[in-house]
Amino acid sequence: MAKRDQWRSRAGFLAAAVGSAVGLGNMWRFSYLTAEQGGAAFVALYLLFTVGVGLPVMLAELALGRGSGRSPVLALKHFGSGRWSVLGWFFVATGFLILAYYSVIAGWTLRYGIESILFAMPDDAGARFSEISQGGDAFAYHVVFMALVMWIVVGGVSRGIERVATVAMPLLFILICAIALYAATLPGAGAGYAYYLNTDFSNALSMEVLISAAGQAFFSLSLGMGAMMTFASYLPERSDLPSES
User: Fold this and answer.
1) pTM exceeds cut of 0.85
2) Contact 220, 42 (CB under 8 A)
3) HSE-up of 197 (CA within 13 Å, CB side)?
């Protein structure tokens, strides 16, 4: 049997894991949930759920993945029984559902990125989005993005995912810092920061906000879909899982 691929470095694993977790859930969903549901109070609840619930669940997923060295379905079967493998299939199905809409949005993003380099940004962004988000061109960009994903995945863990993640994630970090600095210069930035830092628990302790904060913690850590379990299955046996978490 061929030897199973492994991450070439700890940095490569961390870059890939962060790449799985950091996406629209943090850059878009987190922002509007914070704006709608209590500002800094929502952020405090989110951090509480992340540390108190999210990190232990992540550690459990990493332990199952590394300990079995197998996919989510086979990992749960390895440590439990055939009945537990059904939960693994739910993990796989969840990943496919997320891919179904993320890949469409990624196709839009790919087109936006190309057009922003080649052309000036449109004055009416809403109208341009309506053009980009539907029709044959949207489908074509979706197909191109999926082809890129397949090309990376076919390269394997070390030569595909790790190689791309170690370049893409630092670039993403630089872009986020640049956007944050630019946003600080926009009109109304001060009012936005004031709201973000204002702690008002009057609405934040409602059941709706608590559920949103807990869901955001799971979403932004990429939990409950088998991704972390799968990544961990390619870790060396001596890796320090609490530290990785």
Assistant:
1) no
2) no
3) 6
HSE-CB of 209 using CA atoms within 13 angstroms: 22
Write down the pLDDT at residue 107: 93
Q: How many CB atoms lie within 10 A of CB 234?
A: 21
Torsion sign across C-alpha atoms 127, 132, 136, 139: negative
Instruction: Enumerate long-range contacts of 84-92, CB under 8 Å, 24 or more apart.
Output: 88/226, 91/224, 91/225, 91/226, 91/229, 92/226
∠ at Cα 118 (116, 119), nearest 5°? 65
| Separation between Cα atoms, residue 233 and residue 68, nearest integer Å | 7
- Enumerate residues 6+ apart whose C-beta is below 8 A from 170: 15
Provide the residue type at 238 as one letter.
R
